[in-house]
């Protein structure tokens, strides 16, 4: 986790990851490509749950995983090669059985400007069948214990 503590985190105590934007992350427009942002969201999500004890070994042992069902991203400003960014995340939704939600905020370190806000929702699936499955008690304990109140949870619109 980064020691960077911008003034305007959307929620308290984010789990953070520092990102140095590379030339390879940019597209023809000269800014970070939208696909790269999705990769960053996935990277921090795995780092966060791993830090909570929901390791890949636990996924293999239980045969269950949390699969992304929706990602909503608001691109507020561009990130460019050479920028140092700090991506924060929080677990903001959990139904205790099948679903969880996570919120993200991406901040440029040099000026504290928020570049992206995003929310993703996840459903527990059986890793073999890839079909929805009730989450193991271990997942419920980990996710329930890491919930941050006040964030964006599940989107109820179709």
UniProtKB/TrEMBL annotation:
GO terms for molecular function: fatty acyl-CoA hydrolase activity. Keywords: Hydrolase. The keyword Membrane does not apply. InterPro entries: 4-hydroxybenzoyl-CoA_TE (IPR050563), HotDog_dom_sf (IPR029069). The lineage of its organism: Bacteria, Pseudomonadati, Pseudomonadota, Gammaproteobacteria, Pseudomonadales. This is Thioesterase.
């Amino acid at each position: 986790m980064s020691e960077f503590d911008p003034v305007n985190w959307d929620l308290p105590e984010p789990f953070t990851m520092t990102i140095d934007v590379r030339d390879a992350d940019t597209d023809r427009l000269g800014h970070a490509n939208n696909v790269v942002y999705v990769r960053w969201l996935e990277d921090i999500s795995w780092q966060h749950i791993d830090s909570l004890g929901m390791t890949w070994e636990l996924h293999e042992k239980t045969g269950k995983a949390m699969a992304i069902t929706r990602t909503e991203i608001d691109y507020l400003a561009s990130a460019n090669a050479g920028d140092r960014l700090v991506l924060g995340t929080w677990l903001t939704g959990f139904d205790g059985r099948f679903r969880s939600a996570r919120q993200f905020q991406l901040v440029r370190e040099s000026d504290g400007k928020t570049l992206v806000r995003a929310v993703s929702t996840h459903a527990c699936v059986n890793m073999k069948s890839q079909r929805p499955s009730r989450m193991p008690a271990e997942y419920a304990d980990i996710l329930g214990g890491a919930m941050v109140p006040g964030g964006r949870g599940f989107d109820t619109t179709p």
